[in-house]
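Bit of a strange request maybe. I'm writing a small parser for structure token strings and I need a real example to test against, not something I typed by hand. Could someone generate the tokens for this chain?
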Amino acid sequence: MKYPNNIMKSNKKAINYSNRGMDLEELINETNEYYLEKDKALIFKKPTPIGISEAVYTPRGRIIKNGYFKSPSTLDYNGIYRGKYIEFEAKETQSKTSFPIANFHEHQLKYMKRVLNHGGICFVLLKMNHQVFLIKGEDIISFLEEETRKSIPYSYIVEHGKTIEEKWNPSLDYLKIVDEIYLKGENI
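Reply from user aminoacidic:
Good idea to test on real output. This should exercise your parser:
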């Protein structure tokens, strides 16, 4: 835009990619707070187990200078809903055509199997193409055991996943889909 005295100004905003990938987690965290307030479910983000190897004490408090992951983390969220144990992973991709399998770690897939073997509810919330899908853990594991591809095609995600609409409150009502898929025979 030109201002008097030929001064040029631009109203373009700098694009900040530092929090890319946090959108889905923010929606889930808001939703979980809503579920807690309404006493619908107790579901929380699990902290990553980190050990501190070096810290410095300052007048403002302790500052971590060096740390490490104590052990591989399991899945992102866990809790209880209607007497059932729930554990799920949140993933996002910018790809329009597929979700890279490399985004799943081997220990996460083993853990999914363990949760399912013990009768728990296990799934993945995947944000792709501006949509959020709930994909059953069984379907993710089945795909990985039967396919040799390095990514899960978008067509598989659409076919096996359930779309969750973003709304005002709760932001991402994934328990509605859990009811449909896992608890359909129970009194809701």
